[in-house]
Q: What sequence folds into this?
């Protein structure tokens, strides 16, 4: 079996997608699969964003076809649905699969989230991606929630849940007095909700943890809210940190607050649980699927109350919640994910 993983543009620095691709690459090699990786190189895109599109969607077209033709009979595995356009470039769609992590951008472009507005260029781009996904031989989704969207918008799909590498594990450290949030600036990560939960917690309870947010700097409106509440100095924003630093933050946090409005899978939930950090997250899919019975789920408006309840747990109650989280994370080993993909290749494409 030969597999060609089609990764993301180097200039986009999509950390989670790069991590997924690297984990799958290592897992397949450990299982004895002949696997290579190709990704669009930064050739002209170092100058500006628009030339990056030329790298990704003009120059890479020829590079991808050459790579597939040089590996007769290989499986071309596009590891990110955002590159669904590439599926139409691979000769023989029955030898192409796409991993679909979420369809939120496509759904937004279709008007499924009334609060969001996608520009006309964005709508055209997402339609192109959707057409490419429909040309793929097979689609794999990382959760049942994503599968429901895929089967409505694309067609038949299967679920292979994301894996978690052994790197994510507890460290010998006492929990510190901070709450943790991990997530980018995308609307569905709900950083505004995180800030407002923190303000409510500090204003209406006797709990006084600080807040650490891993991701980009807060926008002006959220910074102003914190300043008005007198809490600007109580929030630390860390961006571009290493996995080692992130693991230490998980291990030391009182809890991870993860009030996402939407997700494809919810990787930080598992990372936190594996590192011994309790999780409070949104009471909807896929958070329920990923967090299992070991996360605390709360509806919008109830997050601060749920956080306060976890902070008030007795030591033995907290220890039980931590142990349940570690056990839940063990359901998602990276080796299992690789084996399921190998079986999928054989069952559908050989």
A:
């Amino acid at each position: 079996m030969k597999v060609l993983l089609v990764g993301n543009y180097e200039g986009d620095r999509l950390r989670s997608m790069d991590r997924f691709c690297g984990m799958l690459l290592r897992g397949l090699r450990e299982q004895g699969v002949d696997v290579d990786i190709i990704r669009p190189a930064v050739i002209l895109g170092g100058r500006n964003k628009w030339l990056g599109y030329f790298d990704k969607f003009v120059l890479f077209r020829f590079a991808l076809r050459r790579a597939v033709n040089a590996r007769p009979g290989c499986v071309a595995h596009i590891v990110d649905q955002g590159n669904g356009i590439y599926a139409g470039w691979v000769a023989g769609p029955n030898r192409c699969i796409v991993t679909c992590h979420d369809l939120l951008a496509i759904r937004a472009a279709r008007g499924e989230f009334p609060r969001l507005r996608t520009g006309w260029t964005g709508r055209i781009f997402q339609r192109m991606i959707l057409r490419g996904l429909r040309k793929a031989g097979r689609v794999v989704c990382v959760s049942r929630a994503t599968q429901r969207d895929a089967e409505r918008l694309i067609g038949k799909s299967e679920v292979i849940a994301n894996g978690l590498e052994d790197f994510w594990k507890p460290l010998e450290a006492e929990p510190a007095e901070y709450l943790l949030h991990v997530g980018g600036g995308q609307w569905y990560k709900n950083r505004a909700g995180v800030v407002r939960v923190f303000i409510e917690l500090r204003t209406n309870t006797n709990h006084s943890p600080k807040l650490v947010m891993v991701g980009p700097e807060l926008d002006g409106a959220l910074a102003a809210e914190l300043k008005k509440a007198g809490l600007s100095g109580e929030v630390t924003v860390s961006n571009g940190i290493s996995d080692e630093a992130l693991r230490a933050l998980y291990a030391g946090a009182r809890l991870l607050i993860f009030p996402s409005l939407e997700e494809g899978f919810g990787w930080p939930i598992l990372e936190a649980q594996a590192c011994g950090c309790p999780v409070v997250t949104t009471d909807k899919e896929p958070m329920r699927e990923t967090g299992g019975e070991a996360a605390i789920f709360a509806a919008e408006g109830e997050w601060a109350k749920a956080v306060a309840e976890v902070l008030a747990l007795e030591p033995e109650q907290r220890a039980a919640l931590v142990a349940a989280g570690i056990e839940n994370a063990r359901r998602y080993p990276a080796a299992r994910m690789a084996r399921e993909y190998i079986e999928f290749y054989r069952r559908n494409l050989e």
